[in-house]
UniProtKB/TrEMBL annotation:
Name of this protein: Imidazolonepropionase
Pfam families found in the cross-reference section: Amidohydro_1 (PF01979)
Taxonomic source organism: Bifidobacterium felsineum
Molecular-function annotations in GO: hydrolase activity, acting on carbon-nitrogen (but not peptide) bonds
Tree of life domain: Bacteria
Residue stretches making up the Amidohydrolase-related domain: 65-426
Amino acid sequence: MSRYQSVIEPFALAHVRVVAGDESGTVRNNMTVLVNAAGRIEQVAPSTETSIPEEYHYLDGTGKTVMPGLINAHTHLFAQGKPLNPKLATPQGQRLVARFVHSALGKPYMASTVAQNAKTLLESGVTTIRTLGDVGYEVVDLRERIAAGETAGPRILASGPLMAIPEGHGAPLIALTSSTPEEARACALRNIEHGANAIKIAATGGVTDAQKIGEAGSPQMSVEQMRAICEVAHENGIIVGAHAQSAEGVRRALEAGVDTIEHGSVLDDELIALFRHNPNSLRGYSALVPTLSAGLPLTMIDQKVTGITDIQLENSKTVVEGMVTGARQAHEAGLMVGVGTDTGMTFVPQYATWRELVLLTRFAGFTPAQAVHAATQVNAQVLGVDDVTGSLEVGKAADLLVLNTNPLQDLHALEHPALVVAAGRPVFRPSVERFQQIDQMLDRVYE
Ligand SMILES: [Zn+2]
């Protein structure tokens, strides 16, 4: 079998240990998985009861573990995840970068950057992603090319630019801005007309571009604007994620009807009830996607090393504390908690989705089985793709992650996949370009 194939060749993955990705951590030994020419799972059964059709490639999986491919519900593909230059996070800096990426030179640069980063995600075991804030519609284009089998990559839900207020979080680099519900609606419609199948709102300020202490979580967009965005998205069957880094920001976004709260904050009973039953959301509930990977490094690594400003550090401390507490509370309350890392942000490499699972066990009370469950089946449900992916069920896309050891015993098993299969297309000997300094630093602080 060639390294990347546009035509899917059926294969059997024989004698593997299957980790189902359910909450209780079901493991079945000596199983064989059949993948058909449509790239779908045809059968998952004990090897002794499986007859492999002659025309199927045979992959011996003895000693290996297979689980559903990971899903990362919060990514950005415009950067690799090395530290962002704090100067570029200022409004002036962002305007400069924005001018470049929308220029004749910048567009092809962006197209190849997002393709490369998506490939890195894939080779790290991630077979579905949602982007939440793109420069333009370059990820929409990439999504189509991947779906057509023209290039390797994960299944993508692409947001296009996020929805913000003028000078708000993400503006102007990765945002369309609006000041009224009518304008907000027009912005959301523009994204949808350009093919976006996810919508992102900046409900509050953020850490990276905050210019004063307290700005990170302070509410920005009005409930009415957010409501207008949710309405137009939901009319089109599209879920809305909102960046919200304070309790008040979370409350307003939930009231407006957003389907996922990104990052999050300290919760109270009222907020927990609103997550569980949210009449304005698309499916009647909202989920939390904490991104521990994005916040913790800024507070745990020495400021001299991170190079962040005093303002960024102070804002980080507040929002990270809230985010970690909120994640734990949501998990304890049995809310839907998805897994996202905010790839592309400072210290969040595209290949490090596995770290978020480790962090959820360390800081938010998850068992390894629950973390695997959240990153597969729960994420699929939260993103509304559970009819095609998230578990190893017959008929679903063959999104497989093959590992050398059992991740339920040690989640570090996820760090170096043996084989990744996306929609039936295998990536043999997956490898990514790692940033050794960042990896060592993170290994050290998370030890
Ligand atoms: Zn983000």
